[in-house]
Amino acid sequence: MAVPKAMQAKYDGIAAVLIPYCDQYLSEEYKKLCLYALEKLCRKRPSPLLSGRVNTWVAGIVYAVGSNNFIFDRSMPVHMTAQELVEPLGVAKSTAASKSAEIRKTLKISRAKAEWTLESQVGRNPFLWMITVNGLPVDARCLPPAMQLIAYQKGLIPYVPAFQEGQDEE
Questions:
Q1: How many whole angstroms from its chain centre is CA 25?
Q2: Are residues 154 and 102 in the same domain?
Q3: Phi, psi (degrees; rounded to nearest 5) at 151
Q4: Ramachandran region of residue 131, left (φ > 0), alpha (ψ -120 to 50) or beta?
Q5: Distance CA 36, CA 18 (A)
Q6: Distance from C-alpha of 9 to C-alpha of 145, rounded to nearest angstrom
Q7: What is the model's pLDDT at position 162?
Q8: What is the separation, in whole angstroms, between the first and last Cα of the chain?
Q9: Structural domain tally of the chain?
Q10: CB of 119 within 8 A of CB of 29?
């Protein structure tokens, strides 16, 4: 995804803080998803990035992407408290949470969208697999392969679990 020329300097400034932060405290997957969120924010018209401090935007992006991927859950491979997340950026938890809410609303970040889920967690995110069959909610991973294929073709699930070898499923 390309960043508009008018937003390139803003992107570069935020990315210059975001990338080392992700390298030190998060993971490559988080970095990729956070940079994707930054690119999408740059493409909004008008971009919300035109005002505000760089560290506040970094904290908001990391908080939005992280909370959507259960970063505050100790059972996750990458986890931290809200305080640990914002402390290196010198931003208050309440400021980061507020900016995160703005970003989540602007980008329509949801646990029910594979676009905002870490690749390694897609198979474990129950929100991505719930579909309605004959009016009843069903976990698509429990359906026969033929029905999974239909759900995939309709864009209801991110992939066909029955066709994935070695895929983490719960």
A1: 16
A2: no
A3: -60, -40
A4: beta
A5: 11
A6: 48
A7: 86
A8: 32
A9: 2
A10: yes
Indicate if 79 and 137 belong to the same structural domain: no
Instruction: Give the pTM.
Output: 0.87
Model confidence over 90-132: pLDDT tens digits?
999 999 999 999 999 999 999 989 999 999 999 888 889 999 9
Q: Which residue has the tokens 């329509």?
A: 108
Listed in sequence order, the residues at least 6 apart from 159 whose beta carbon sits closer than 8 Å to its beta carbon are 122, 152, 167
Q: Strand ranges (DSSP E) for the chain?
A: 130-133, 136-139
State the Cα–Cα distance between residues 17 and 15, nearest whole angstrom: 5
CATH for 29: 1.10.472.10
- Residue 88, preceding bond cis, omega within 30 degrees? no
64 to 100, 104, 111, 166: CA distances (angstroms): 5, 6, 11, 29
The one-letter amino acid at 75: S
> Each residue of 20-42: pLDDT tens digit?
999 999 999 999 999 999 999 99
